[in-house]
Amino acid sequence: MNPTVGVYIASHNRRADLARTLHALAQLDPPPVEVIVLADGCTDGTAEFVAHSFPTVRLLEHAEAQGSIPSRNELAAGCRSEIFLSLDDDSYPIENDFIARVSQCFAENLALAVLSFPQRTDEFPETLTKTDFGPSHFIGSYANSGAAIRHAVFIALGGYPGFFRHAYEEPDFALRCVAAGWQVRQETSLTIRHHYTSAQRNELRMHQQHARNEQWSVFLRCPAPYFVAVALFRLLRQAGYARRRGVSWLLREPLWWWDCLRGAAARLGERRPLPWRKYRAWMELVRHPIHSEEEWLAKFGKPEK
Fold first, then answer.
1. What is the DSSP code string of 79-130?
2. How many alpha carbons lie under 13 Å from residue 278 in its C-beta half-sphere?
3. Which residues, including other chains, have CB under 8 Å from residue 218's CB and lie 6 or more apart?
4. Beta strands 192-194 and 91-93: pairing type?
5. Is 288 inside any structural domain?
6. Are residues 245 and 98 part of one domain?
7. pLDDT tens by residue, 99-136
């Protein structure tokens, strides 16, 4: 029997976007076995709207916003399906039979942990009319605005670091997956429509959170003595990105440095370094996707029992 697939969405004050997504999900055939929405500190009537307009959707609430990552962890903890499709409140599947095809992918590949999909997004207008996303391939990261995840693997690997709060949870989880032999794959025959609304998005803040969490992931996962060099490389790379965005961004880089340092002792105390061979192979995978099963197995092997 093919695994069951549910849909899980964390939302914060984007009621109109969420409404469009829930309407799109209602058109899928077959439908997901469940849809759960977590209203994370919403003050725009999101919870009341969902309860009234979509009574079959399971609703969770946070009185105060806790962040997208703790919210996604909570959604996964409440998951009743074997595969959970993670979406943003402004993203949804395009293909009508998306759920059945995702289930089939996981049924055919028991080593698959995460299935990601190309996104047709307003952030990159050229994707809206693109006709060919190329062959499917193995990847080192993915986007939670459109990714199907095997629930048992997510729980076994410990989910996302809640202290990240926002950003970088996907590459950190993908790293742990591939280091344990679990596959992370981009399936190009299925697509996600991501409207990518600007509401509740601050690009500078997102950059700083991403950069801080990237460093914390290095502290947690990268083995000695390499983690010092990797951390320095990532710091300089983020500074280079900030410089390209303008002087005002570059002048604010020390803000995330300080935030990172304040949590450094805790992160170092929680270190669970991975083998350098796997960590380095993952860094290469992020830059250069793998297209063959043979190359994947040579670098990462099969899932650990």
1. --SSEEEEE-TTEEE-STTHHHHHHHHHHH-TTEEEEE--EEETTSGGGGS-
2. 20
3. 227, 230, 231, 234
4. antiparallel
5. no
6. no
7. 999 999 999 999 999 999 999 998 889 999 998 999 99
Cβ atoms < 10 Å from Cβ of 210:
18
Whole-prediction pTM: 0.95
> How many domains, the chain?
2
Q: Is residue 304 in some structural domain?
A: no
Calpha distance 120→192 (Å, rounded): 6
- Indicate the SS3 state at residue 69: helix
Instruction: Indicate the pLDDT class of residue 200, thresholds 50, 70 and 90.
Output: low
CATH number at residue 23: 3.90.550.10
CA distance 243 to 41: 34
Closest CA to 112 of 74, 142, 78, 72: 142
Same-domain pairing of 9 and 139: yes
Furthest-apart CA atoms within the chain: distance in Å: 56
Strand partners, 38: 10, 60
